[in-house]
Design a protein that fits this description.
Number of strands: 12
Number of helices: 0
Helix content: under 10%
Distance between the termini: 33 Å
Structural class: mainly beta
Largest sheet: 4 strands, mixed
Order of helices and strands: EEEEEEEEEEEE
Low-confidence stretches: 1-13, 15-22
């Protein structure tokens, strides 16, 4: 390994090329426009918000990419139960040891013409991030959003 590449890992790309990936270079996720719409601080921890639709993702630390365990992620969306302001469409989950999270809820429906979810990290140890992933189709039964959080 060349000088100056301490902390680097070798990764194989899709075409078989070997590249050096510097883990300390993982940038934080920026907030998305519209991500904080209809946000409710301190949404309760829930096991589920319905059935048939899955919101999932991972949470990692900026820089080294380490998975973050026990991080609270808030999730809300317009669903078959009602709009984004409907309390039954707001909840929080905690990440697992591998940084993953997952929440089952009612089917997301288009709001302002787009089927989308809202996700937030705002607990203070890291910079606040609001995400608004848009689904390709209103008939999709899952959406994924990954966070890379920067310490405050």
């Amino acid at each position: 390994m060349a000088a100056g590449s301490a902390g680097a890992a070798l990764t194989q790309g899709p075409l078989g090329f070997v590249a050096t990936a510097l883990a300390q270079d993982l940038p934080p996720t920026p907030s998305m426009r519209g991500g904080s719409n209809n946000y409710r601080p301190n949404a309760p921890l829930v096991e589920r918000l319905g059935s048939g639709f899955w919101v999932s993702g991972t949470v990692r630390r900026a820089g080294d990419g380490a998975p973050l365990n026990g991080v609270r992620i808030q999730i809300w969306a317009a669903t078959t139960l009602g709009g984004e302001r409907e309390p039954r469409n707001h909840g929080s989950v905690l990440t697992a040891a591998d940084g993953s999270f997952r929440l089952e809820m009612e089917q997301i429906v288009p709001n302002f013409g787009q089927p989308h979810a809202h996700l937030a990290y705002d607990d203070g140890s890291y910079q606040t991030v609001f995400l608004r992933p848009v689904m390709p189709s209103p008939s999709d039964t899952s959406v994924r959003a990954d966070f890379v959080l920067a310490p405050v």
